[in-house]
Amino acid sequence: MLQSFKIVADDKVDDREINRCSFPFLNMNKEVATQVVCIVGTGDFGCSFGKRLLRSGVAVVFGSRNPRQISNRLPEEAQVLSVKQAVAACDIVVLAVRQQHQAALEGELSSVINGKILVDVSNTDKRPAQNSIPNTSELQMLFPQTHIVKAFNMISAWSLQAGLDDACKKVFVCADNVNARRKVMELAWIMGLEAIDKGSLANAKELEEYTHQFFPQWRIPMRVTLGLLFVFYIYTIIQDVLFSYFKHGSDRSFRLAISLPNKAIPSVALVLLSLVYLPGTLAAYIQLHRGTKYSTFPLWLNNWLLVRKQLGLAMFGCAGVHVLISLALPLRVYVYWKWVLSIKHQIDKNWTITFTNIDFWQRDLYLIFGILGFSIVVLLAITSLPSVVNSLSWKEFHFVQSKLGWLSLLLCTAHTICYGGSRFLRSESYHWGIPPLYIPALMLPCTTIFLKLPLLLPFLNRELQMIRQGQTRSRPGVEIEMFYA
Amino acid sequence: MLQSFKIVADDKVDDREINRCSFPFLNMNKEVATQVVCIVGTGDFGCSFGKRLLRSGVAVVFGSRNPRQISNRLPEEAQVLSVKQAVAACDIVVLAVRQQHQAALEGELSSVINGKILVDVSNTDKRPAQNSIPNTSELQMLFPQTHIVKAFNMISAWSLQAGLDDACKKVFVCADNVNARRKVMELAWIMGLEAIDKGSLANAKELEEYTHQFFPQWRIPMRVTLGLLFVFYIYTIIQDVLFSYFKHGSDRSFRLAISLPNKAIPSVALVLLSLVYLPGTLAAYIQLHRGTKYSTFPLWLNNWLLVRKQLGLAMFGCAGVHVLISLALPLRVYVYWKWVLSIKHQIDKNWTITFTNIDFWQRDLYLIFGILGFSIVVLLAITSLPSVVNSLSWKEFHFVQSKLGWLSLLLCTAHTICYGGSRFLRSESYHWGIPPLYIPALMLPCTTIFLKLPLLLPFLNRELQMIRQGQTRSRPGVEIEMFYA
Amino acid sequence: MLQSFKIVADDKVDDREINRCSFPFLNMNKEVATQVVCIVGTGDFGCSFGKRLLRSGVAVVFGSRNPRQISNRLPEEAQVLSVKQAVAACDIVVLAVRQQHQAALEGELSSVINGKILVDVSNTDKRPAQNSIPNTSELQMLFPQTHIVKAFNMISAWSLQAGLDDACKKVFVCADNVNARRKVMELAWIMGLEAIDKGSLANAKELEEYTHQFFPQWRIPMRVTLGLLFVFYIYTIIQDVLFSYFKHGSDRSFRLAISLPNKAIPSVALVLLSLVYLPGTLAAYIQLHRGTKYSTFPLWLNNWLLVRKQLGLAMFGCAGVHVLISLALPLRVYVYWKWVLSIKHQIDKNWTITFTNIDFWQRDLYLIFGILGFSIVVLLAITSLPSVVNSLSWKEFHFVQSKLGWLSLLLCTAHTICYGGSRFLRSESYHWGIPPLYIPALMLPCTTIFLKLPLLLPFLNRELQMIRQGQTRSRPGVEIEMFYA
Question: Would you give the distance in Å from CA A167 to the centre of its chain?
Fold first, then answer.
């Protein structure tokens, strides 16, 4: 043991004194303060890892192939030894060596590593193949007598050095030996990281795949959003620009930049908002039909229910762009030009455009519904932030995301209906028989609202509440379940 | 004891080796790795709880009334025994049975539960009555020799299964036995939850009420906001729509949708903003008068001080809606129609409306004050987010919320004054002798600012600083307090 | 020992039973449940600290100079003793006395404090001088046989009482004795605070300076932003208002309020955005030139790289104000007046202003580029929130902040170019030979984009990737580094 690595020898005080006052949360032994962590590898990650350990008051010894040729990037407080010496001196060994070079260490390590904790922090450069063996399994074969722990692979050298405020602090830890796993978790906590227990080494492959993860929950919602945007945009091009061109020969291609996106984007937002609330309604009908909540939903519905948050955030993005575009409309030269033309026309004809109170009402309701609907959507987006969610009780979260969410769906649907007004009745709105985009866009939200209405009937609502509280419509053989709900 | 529940037997390694390397944070014994948790009840919560425990590497045994009729919802890795057998095998028993069925378990449990930890996760469906006995007290009467722990009642089965990222992770734990409490807290941490020590079982009722909690801090601010909105809206209806109708017979009812809300909402926002900064000013005068900070404020002032954040966020909401409405004004048909009329009128009379530089200045200052005021309010709202607050030092938080907050109050007040301009002097602004809404809305902000001004005088400011640093104007008998401030 | 401070004596149960079921995470002893914390000082902080400890189930005894004259602010559950008695009864002593009064306690404490943990929570009122001795060093000299721990000095009495949701929960802990440090960290965790290990007492001064810290990372970005705003604003005043005044004698001073800020602010935003992405590009060239990432950048570049987040947030603020001002433009009286004049002019001359499709395209592209660019900037700002960052993997964070960030730089640059259009070619845009502000504002973004382009060439990009993965262009003597990367 390296006696020189005792952290802070506080010889003035009799340590027996201090041991009397141990706290319920933990029970420390005097000798544990002398713990040293060995880092094999003096690369980027090893250096950063060592520096952070030292900053957290943990002594560090580096194991290097060539300890005399010490890099100036290594922290000065750390001792550098040969790999063998370093490993022999410590009980926790962090293997900060690229995967392809690990096997080369077998000779040096195998004699000293037995019974120690070997932390594998490595990552593959590319996404590992489906049937590949995780690196930890290969390490376990190399060093069968060692406690292999997979951890820290999601932490980058950069974030260890630059400070942890601006990066992910989660450290997933898995190991077969529970003691080894807990010790590495503790090491992570001491470093100011957030250790999360991921069970046995069987999950190591999952951990290695995590670093290659790229918004997995967003894959389907993003495809739905982009797909809808594309389809709706093409729809408006046909219904508006192509129709004008072929029918009247007028070139309205400049509408591709602002006018048509401001039809396609809000339509997508409305459809996405209804996609957030439709699956819950379908699930309620299934529960009512089956009379129990203890049966799994079809897989497609389950997956749909799980991406509601992402669909809602995509809706928030679309709605936000729609609001910005709409508010910027008066800044358009085209709008200015049309106003000038309209006023000149009125003056030439000595005629004044007239509006009834109903016109004012319709247009103002259209605006206020949209504004209130968007305001609620902003509130929903804010309460989706991880730190806000964690400060809400279940009842509060449910009120905001369900009650207020339905209100925003109603307001946004009303906004779209008021926008159209009675225009859908006029034949000139239909180009080549194709209705304006807002009419197909209203289909799904209206369906969702109509499906929801029966569930608000008192007797259906009461039965749904009972089912959701875990009760089961009495059928022979399920009595036992009711008892233990 | 169920020897089969040993988690990961790692027989290849000599465990004496690994025990040498224990870390200061914890001190693990070899045998503890064999811990098993018993879950009584195979309902929704029990299943989800068991699955999460298993995922975190804790072995689980279910106690069921009918262990041979095993539900397919139970995790495969868990063993299912009779209630008696399961409880006998474990030291921590989670009672995942509805409250009304718990008494029925007395016979089966009483012989095996003594000296064990019994975790009560149950919740009442309705808010418990004021004088009702908490469920834990009834359990303690049923099983007097058992360590009852109340915990996990705020966690839903859904969030345990669907992943914890999108839900509240707080687990309040209370128990009379400190060891039992700490062990359950530890269990929560292992599951990836955030355990919070809530002291003895006397607080169990508070915990049971938590799930029925519904924005308790928002109750008064919400009532103030909605009350002000209602009163101000009615005020504008009388001052504007009803006056026009009875005086001129003109139907301006369409102004109910946009125009009047855009008078009421910003007025409420301004009053709310002054309500955020008024109580602190009053508190300063009380402290100056009493000459010490070591005296409690009147209860109403204390409660007011505690809801400042909520008042500020309600103000942010109102201000946001006001901004959206204001920016959408040019989109209104009514505004377009008025412009057309105005231009036609100017052309008919061959007269051009003229504006002085002062008109331009007034209107532009009005806009820029509002924009800057709102920008600061957005900044205040962002720094109210839990995760941002936690990254600010006290001095930084104080600068943003106090200094910048006062600046936003000044800007918003100036915005409202510039909006009115010299209109408040003209008699035609007063309908039925009632002034426009912005005049009463300016009362409170102006009062707040005038009350603040004397506190900025150097000698008063210095004395206030001294008092807030814990000094007391010398009076006989309080010397001791100065010493230990 | 004060036997009366045993928390919750649960005599009914045989405690040997419960000790069998200890969990891997911790190992509690029966006797530790009797822990008491002593607080010396009955001032504001002491009282709040004691109340919070009691709420978390930790017994508290106050040490007061005059224990019979007990303040009514002290919690009722706490016992109050003389300082000597209180300290003698506990092993952890929290010194909640102002620094200037601590020396006066030497006589009373020195006989009983030896071997105990003394927690110094004190702060200086003013920023400590560069060469001053930290308070802990003076305490250590007063009580040489004591374990001094510096902690809790960043927590305010107010936040301890008012609840911890709305304040910083970080507790930096430093001490020379590791056991003492860990025990105080544990105490902080029990109180619901977030303890962070800051190593030995040598860091105490740093902790004392923390409370006086005022946005240290913002100092340079704020100066850059305000400096640019000032310079650009003056530039527009000269180029616009002064030129009009001296050349045409027209008073356009009202443009100072809205028009000129809306030129200066977006120009600053564009320059700030390019300042976010320029240092990374320069760093890439340095890495390519040196052929390794294992060499430190020049200090100026390193500091620049570290403030990119702050520069980006300052850019977000400027962009947000620019958006608000731009959308509010149609509300200006000046704009209305100019429209009226323009329409009257067209009618008088019986002439209609004409726009080509290209005019419409240019103006609409200008708007949509700005809207999309700003939308992405909002997304970048949201993913800068601490709680969101912590939920992103490194790859996801990199995609948002790098890929999407570059896209926003491209869009905002295109937005500015489209705004100018062909105006920069016309001589009347140049006043006194000075070009409009958007032309110099475009310099840096265009330079940044042009510098980035070569890095996208496949062979340079591949080499950069290799270097960033830790490989070094082979040079003699650095082989060892490649091995341990």
Answer: 14
pLDDT at C351 over 60: yes
Q: Please give, rounded to a whole number of angstroms, the shortest distance from the CA of C255 to a CA of chain B.
A: 8
Q: Which of B284, B269, B286, B289 is nearest to B412 (CA)?
A: B269
Task: Indicate the angle between helix axes C333-348 and B357-382, nearest 10 degrees.
Answer: 140
Are A206 and A222 part of one and the same domain?
no
Query: Do B225 and B202 share a domain, yes or no?
Result: no
Verify that A204 and A329 share a domain, yes or no: no
| CB pair distance less than 8 Å for C386 and B389 | no
Residue that finishes a domain, picked among C194, C210, C226? C210
Give the CATH number of the domain where residue B16 resides. 3.40.50.720
A200/A307 same-domain check: no
**Does B353 have pLDDT greater than 80?**
no
Please indicate, yes or no, whether residues A204 and A256 belong to a single structural domain of this protein: no
Tell me the ipTM for this assembly. 0.82
**Contact flag B56-A189 (C-beta cutoff 8 Å):** no
**Sign of the torsion formed by the C-alpha atoms of B291, B296, B298 and B303:** positive
Residue A109 tokens, joined: 């390590």
Phi and psi dihedrals of A296, rounded to 5? Answer: -75, 145
Most A-contacting residue of B5, B7, B13 (CB-CB within 10 A), to test interface: B13
C-chain residue closest to B171, CA distance: C192
**pTM, entire model:** 0.85
**Dihedral over Cα of A420, A424, A425, A431: its sign:** positive
Cβ atoms of residues C172 and C119 within 8 Å: no
Task: Say yes or no: A168 and A257 in one domain.
Answer: no
Look at residues C408, C439, C447, C441 and name the one whose alpha carbon lies nearest to residue C422.
C439
CA–CA separation, B274 and B445 (whole Å) = 5
C333/B346 Cβ within 8 A: no
Indicate whether C262 and C358 sit together in one domain.
Answer: yes
Q: Which residue range(s) make up the domain with C254? A: 216-483
pLDDT tens digits along B203-246: 888 888 877 788 888 999 999 999 999 999 999 999 888 988 88
User: What pLDDT is attached to residue A471?
Assistant: 65
Helix (H, G, I), strand (E, B) or coil at C401: helix
How would you classify the pairing of strands B170-175 and B194-197?
parallel
Could you tell me which residue, B24 or A133, shows the higher pLDDT? Answer: A133
pLDDT greater than 80 at residue B484: no
**Considering its fold, how many domains does chain B have in total?**
2
